[in-house]
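Entry for the shared binder. Reason: the reviewer on the internal report wants the predicted structure included alongside the sequence.
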Amino acid sequence: MTDLMRYAAELEGAGEKGLPPVEKWHPDFCGEIDLTIKRDGTWVHEGTPIGRARLVRLFSTVLRREDDDYFLVTPVEKMAIEVEDTPFVAVLMRREGEGEQQKLIFTSNVGDEAAAGPEHKLVFRADPETGERAPYIDMRSRLEARIARAVYYDLVALGETRDIDGEEMFGVFSEGVFFPFGPASEVYE
């Protein structure tokens, strides 16, 4: 049995009762595990994609970020993994309500949901290699989801221009918060 499968067996049932309190667990560091979360959201163990969605969901429930590093954590073990961009991808968005108080709710590839707002910030960052700006949302406990391109287009369709400190900014409202994509002149180029 690989270390990953042993780890999964120890976690069995962990994600069924909600998210475990990983932020309260402070086990000793046990080393690295050959697990990479690719930019497209695929979880890869020893070079092979994990095809079982339930297993990926299980591991996602014990994922923790410390500074720029990611770990799978239990009360007794902490193992480092590699994350190429973010651990999650927002693959769906739904809108509840309208106007400034509308709620934009994002669903990740592992089934987590977060409504953009004061608790879950929507930000835009430039890719260090391409310079292309991409949207991200804080899903939970400093774990972000990059918003998939198709969802981004849905988001843009809801966008509007607002004057922010004398500059026309393009963005969206969710839960009363305006999230600017960037200067309107750059968005409309």
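Summary line for the report: Residues 29 and 78 are 5 Å apart (CA to CA).
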